[in-house]
Amino acid sequence: MVTIVIGGAASGKSEFAEALVQTLPGQRVYVATMEPYDGECLARIEKHRRQRAGKGFLTLERYRDLGGLAVPAGANVLLECMSNLLANELYSPQGGGSAAVLGGVERLSQRCAHLTIVTNEVFSGGCDYEGDTLRYLRELGAVNRALAAQADRVVEVVCGCPNVLKGRLP
Fold first, then answer.
1. For residue 129, what pLDDT is reported?
2. How far apart are CA 150 and CA 3, in angstroms?
3. From the candidates 1, 35, 36, 48, which is the catalytic residue?
4. What pLDDT was estimated at residue 122?
5. Going by C-beta distance under 8 Å and a sequence separation of 6 or more, which residues neighbour residue 53?
6. Would you call 114 a catalytic residue per the annotation?
7. Is 25 exposed, middle or buried (0-12, 13-18, 19+ CB in 10 A)?
8. pLDDT, mean of residues 61-68
9. pLDDT of 9 higher than 90
């Protein structure tokens, strides 16, 4: 089963996704995709570590090549977050672009019992973008659409409130 959890910045999507995965029986694996480039990244990483402390997650850091990640068979995987993974695959010299992201998600979903993917909703800001920023936003939108089409469940989180767009909550 694949669940997509989408929401804007500070919407509560991460907390919702973690709580959802905690309801599942079996091993929990948290796949962290944010590369620690600077102090801001380190602070966000630390916030997420504190947030999931004591919740029984095995944390694996994976910045690119999701398809090559070894996870325990049948585990419940929480991928946090698609936005970072895509940026890493698009802008790193070792990156494989959105095709690597989608292929990696497909391979990962075949190895785990449940895959929950957190991603950002990025088109509600009302701003006009150009260049690489616009390219990234369009790529993320395309990846989100492709993942949602294949997912069993899609949940948008707004102000901490889940809105089920596809499927049902357990």
1. 77
2. 9
3. 48
4. 84
5. none
6. no
7. exposed
8. 95
9. no
Average pLDDT rounded to a whole number, residues 54-74: 94
Environment class of 130 (CB within 10 Å of its CB; exposed 0-12, middle 13-18, buried 19+): exposed
Q: What are phi and psi of 75, to 5 degrees?
A: -75, 165
First vs last C-alpha separation in the chain: 12
Residue 112 half-sphere exposure, CB side, CA atoms within 13 Å? 32
β-bridge pairing 161-166 and 28-32: unpaired
Retrieve residue 26's tokens.
């079996």
Specify the pLDDT at position 126.
Answer: 65
**Which DSSP symbol is given to 116?**
E
Alpha carbon distances (Å) from 46 to 36, 49, 87: 10, 5, 20
Q: Which two tokens stand for residue 142?
A: 């395309």
- Which tops the pLDDT comparison, 48 or 80? 80
The b-or-e profile of 137-156 (16+ CB within 10 A means b, else e) is bebbeebbeebbeebebbbb
161: CB partners within 8 A, 6+ apart: 12
